[in-house]
């Protein structure tokens, strides 16, 4: 009789990769340093709501995997979401987000004050493609950490959610006890 192979559960180690922004007049470029990753282990998508979702996962050894997840706002009021593209070169994921060109005003039309839109329309679903030309990095760039999905999947987020549920349960229980006490006190006074 042959022995059954033992299935090992995969253990994930989350990390926050180093990010570098290059802000230019016509585009913003996000460079994410991902040592040890391969192009096939990365995923870049844009949602209908203008959120760039970047993730990756790679094996470390045996049942251990390293992974990350980032979200970056890419509103269609600022960026040409159909032209966003990503390229993986020398352990760096380079995401180029071309800015929308301002439309030139009609000289025959009187000028009107510009008010912000009430709601941002969702861009058409067009996932960015890997590849494309990316200019050489500029000498000066603004470095900042990428915005991470708040609390999702982290131990702190799970703790916060657990505390919130416990607090709501305590308030409901206190209200119920108060209601029951008031209803029994009202019957005893007759």
From TrEMBL:
Biased amino acid composition, Pro residues: 104-116
Keywords: Cell membrane, Membrane, Plant defense, Transmembrane, Transmembrane helix
Bilayer disposition of the protein: Single-pass membrane protein
Transmembrane segments: 159-181
Domain of life per record: Eukaryota
GO BP annotations, alphabetical order: defense response
Gene3D superfamilies documented for this protein: 2.60.40.790
Family matches, as Pfam families: HSP20
SUPFAM superfamilies on file: HSP20-like chaperones
Cellular component annotations (GO), alphabetically ordered: plasma membrane
Annotated compartments: Cell membrane
Domain SHSP: 9-117
Classification via InterPro entries: A-crystallin/Hsp20_dom (IPR002068), HSP20-like_chaperone (IPR008978)
The keyword Thylakoid is assigned to this record: no
Disordered, as annotated region: 100-137
Residue spans of biased composition, Low complexity class: 117-128
Name listed for the protein in its UniProt record: SHSP domain-containing protein
Organism: Salvia divinorum
Organism phylogeny: Eukaryota, Viridiplantae, Streptophyta, Embryophyta, Tracheophyta
């Amino acid at each position: 009789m042959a022995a059954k192979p033992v299935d090992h559960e995969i253990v994930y180690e989350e990390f926050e990769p180093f990010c570098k922004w290059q802000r230019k007049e016509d585009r913003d470029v996000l460079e994410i340093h991902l040592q040890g990753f391969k192009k096939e282990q990365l995923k870049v998508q844009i949602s209908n709501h203008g959120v760039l979702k970047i993730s990756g996962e790679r094996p470390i050894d045996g049942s251990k995997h390293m992974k990350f997840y980032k979200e970056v706002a890419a509103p269609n009021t600022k960026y040409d979401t159909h032209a966003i593209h990503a390229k993986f070169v020398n352990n760096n994921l380079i995401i180029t987000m071309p800015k929308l060109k301002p439309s030139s005003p009609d000289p025959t039309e009187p000028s009107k004050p510009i008010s912000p839109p009430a709601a941002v329309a969702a861009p058409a679903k067009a996932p960015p493609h890997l590849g494309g030309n990316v200019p050489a990095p500029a000498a000066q760039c603004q470095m900042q950490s990428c915005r991470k999905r708040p609390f999702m999947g982290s131990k702190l987020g799970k703790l916060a959610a657990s505390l919130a549920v416990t607090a709501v349960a305590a308030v409901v229980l206190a209200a119920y006890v108060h209601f029951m006490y008031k209803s029994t006190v009202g019957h005893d006074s007759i």
